[in-house]
Amino acid sequence: MKTKAVVLVVGMGALFFMSTKTFAQSDNSPETRVMASQVDKGEEDKSRLKDAKELKRSTKAEAKMAKATAKEASRIEDDASDAAKQARQAARREIIAQKSRNNADEQARKAAEATEKSNNN
User: Which residue stretches belong to region Disordered (predicted)?
Assistant: First the structure.
């Protein structure tokens, strides 16, 4: 009976130790779940930060392109304004030249009439 009791106690002890190791290795503890969620949050934060940096980079590139486009549009507008101003000035000069030609023609006609009168007298 003594051996039976010793074997029973040792067997129960062995089963107890084996079962505690099995339960101790499971990851169902709240601390493990909290740590896992923190790791997931950290990965999500890194992903969001990476996305934000990429968005900032692309926004800068788009702003640079928009600035270049605006500068080019301003240059074209200035060129068009200068061309319109030159066209107005050329039109004014042409009007003045036309008046001068008309006056010169009128004076030439009067001079011709005066010469003809003088030749007739």
Answer: 25-121
Q: Which helix (H) or strand (E) holds 81?
A: helix 30-120
One-letter identity of residue 40: D
Q: Which three-class secondary structure state does DSSP give residue 21?
A: helix
| Per-residue model confidence as pLDDT tens digits over 12-38 | 888 777 766 555 455 556 666 666 677
Which residue in 93, 107, 4, 77 sits closest to 115, CA to CA? Answer: 107
Question: Which letter does DSSP use for residue 25 in this model?
Answer: T
Position 4, amino acid? K
Q: How many domains does the chain have?
A: 1
Q: What is the pTM of this model?
A: 0.46
Q: How far is CA 25 from the centre of its chain?
A: 52
Domain limits for position 96: 66-121
Residue owning tokens 């990851």: 27
Q: Which two tokens stand for residue 9?
A: 């106690």
Residue 14 belongs to some domain of the structure: no
